């Protein structure tokens, strides 16, 4: 299972991370292929830890995946 299973991403970015947020588009182009998954960016006041500036929540279609496909 690879990036082709990715359906959407939601990207939470803190105000302090907005200056570097455009780099996310470069990473998407480097790691993903067309048709690109849907993406939503949300500016938030903070994340779980103060040093975090960006959190990405992916949603993927893993139907048909085996346990080996989803192991980290």
What attributes characterize this protein structure?
60s Ribosomal Protein L30, Chain: A, three-stranded mixed β-sheet, 3 strands, single chain, globular
Report the order of strands and helices.
EHEEH
The helix content, as a percent range, equals 10-25%
Task: Tell me the count of domains.
Answer: 1
Low-confidence stretches: none
Largest sheet report: 3 strands, mixed
The radius of gyration is: 14 Å
Span from first to last CA?
11 Å
Structural class: alpha+beta
Q: Please give the number of β-strands.
A: 3
CATH topology: 60s Ribosomal Protein L30, Chain: A
CATH superfamily: RutC-like
Which CATH class is shown? Alpha Beta
The overall average pLDDT, rounded, is 90
How do you describe this structure in short?
The chain has 72 residues and is α+β, with helices and mostly antiparallel strands.
Task: Provide structural commentary.
This protein has one domain (3-62): 60s Ribosomal Protein L30, Chain: A. The chain has two helices and three strands. The model has no long low-confidence stretch (mean pLDDT 90). The radius of gyration is 14 Å and the shape is globular. The protein has a three-stranded mixed β-sheet, with no helix packed on it. With 72 residues, it is an alpha+beta fold. Strand 1, helix 1 (23-31) and strand 2 form a beta-alpha-beta unit.
